[in-house]
Amino acid sequence: MEQQTLRTTDILISGGGVAGLTAAAAFGAAGFTTICVDPQPPVTAEGEAGADMRTTAFLHPSRAVLEGAGLWARLAPYAAPLQIMRIIDAGGAEPVARLTRDFDAADLSDEPFGWNFPNWLLRREMVARLAELPLVDFRPGVATTGLVTRESGAEVTLSDGSRVRAKLVVAADGRNSFIREAAGIPVKTTRYGQKALAFAVTHPLPHNDVSTEIHRSGGPFTLIPLPDRDGLHSSAIVWMERGAEAERLAALPVPEFEAAMNARSTGLLGPLTLVTRRSVWPMMTQIAARFAAERVALIAEAAHVIPPIGAQGLNMSLADLTCLLRLAEKDPAHLGEPAMLAAYNRRRWPEVKAREIGIDFLNRASMVAPQPLRDLRAGVLGALYSLKPVRKTLMRAGLGVR
C-alpha cells in the first residue's frame, strides 16, 4: 500500500506562479519527468477574483527559454513590444517632466528590449501548454507539506496525502518559500515601508512601444505598453509609494484616483482611465544565503525578491531557470547531485547579489523627498545618459548581456 502512494519523478517543482509554470514547461519539453504543484489553482481570467493584475516584461535574453519550452508561440500574439525605455525626472517643485532620457533598443540590435504581458494571461497560456506535455503532471490546489532529503534523492509530502520521490526539488514557491525553510536556508530581507499599486488604464495617445518610469518621490510611476483594449490604447501601471500613501490611493473612489494618477503621470499619454481593479503589493529586497541545498535548488522569489524597477524581477528568475536547465541537460545522469547544485549556486548567487545592490540603490534614489536630493538625482541621470558608452553599458547590463 505504501508503494502505491509513492510516485517517482526527475523533478518536483513547488510553486505554480509564472516562474514555476515556465520551469515545468521547460523541463518537461527537455525530456525530464516533472511534477509541478501549487496550493492555489491559477486564476486565468482578468475579471476573476484573485487575478494577478501585474504585468511581466520578458527581456530579450529570456525569449530563448520560452521558445525551448514551447511557450513563445502561444504568447507572441499577445505581446506588446518594449522598444524604448524612457526615464522622466519630475522631481521639481511642480509634478511636471523636467528631464527626459530615452534608452532605445535600436542602439543595440534590431530587436526590442522585450515584450510585455499581463500575468493572468501568462498563467492561462502556460497552463494550456503544460496540458500538451506528456512528461509534466501539473497539480493545482496541492501544496508541499514535507521535505526530506538524502544523498540519493528527495522525498516530498503533498497536502493530498501523496508522496513524491525526486532527484531534484525546485523551489519556486515565493518569498515565503516552504521548501527554502525546510532546507534550512536563511534569507536577508530589507523592507522599504513602500507598496506598489498595479492596474491597467486606457489613454488617447499611443504609447508607441515606450515603457516609461516617472520619478518624483515615493518610488517610480511606471507605464508599460499593453496591446490596445477595445479599440483604445492601453498601458499597465505600477505606482510605487510609501505604504500609507499607497493604501490611501488604493481606497480612493475612482474619480479621485484617476485625478491623482493623471497628476502623477505628468499627462504623458493624455487623460488616463482606470479599466481594472487596483491591487497592492508590499515592496522589499530579499536574497537567500545560498540558492541550493541537498537535492534542492531555489529559483525566482524563493531565491530573490527585488522592487519592480527595470523589468529585472522575472527575468532574473528565468536566468535562474536557464542556468539550472543547462546544467541538467549537460549531465542528466547526475541531476540534483552536489556538483550540479554547487555550480548553479556559484553561477547565480553573485550575479543576483550584484543586481540586488543596484536595484536597491535605484529604488532608494527614486524614493527621495527633499528637493536637493531630487535635483542631484536628475543631475546624475543627465550626466550618465550624455556618455554614449556608459548608456550602452547600462542597457546591456539591464538586459543581462555582456
TrEMBL record:
Cofactor: FAD
Transmembrane segments: 12-32
Pathway noted in the entry: Cofactor biosynthesis; ubiquinone biosynthesis
Alphabetically ordered keywords of this record: FAD, Flavoprotein, Membrane, Monooxygenase, Oxidoreductase, Transmembrane, Transmembrane helix
Pfam families: FAD_binding_3
SUPFAM superfamilies documented for this protein: FAD/NAD(P)-binding domain
Cross-referenced InterPro entries: FAD-bd, FAD/NAD-bd_sf, UbiH/COQ6, UbiH/COQ6_monooxygenase
Residues of the FAD-binding domain: 9-353
Gene Ontology molecular functions: FAD binding; monooxygenase activity; oxidoreductase activity, acting on paired donors, with incorporation or reduction of molecular oxygen
Keyword Transmembrane helix: yes
Keyword Oxidoreductase: yes
Family, similarity comment: Belongs to the UbiH/COQ6 family.
Alphabetized PANTHER family for the sequence: UBIQUINONE BIOSYNTHESIS MONOOXYGENASE COQ6, MITOCHONDRIAL (PTHR43876)
Protein name from the UniProt record: UbiH/UbiF family hydroxylase
UniProt organism field: Paenirhodobacter hankyongi
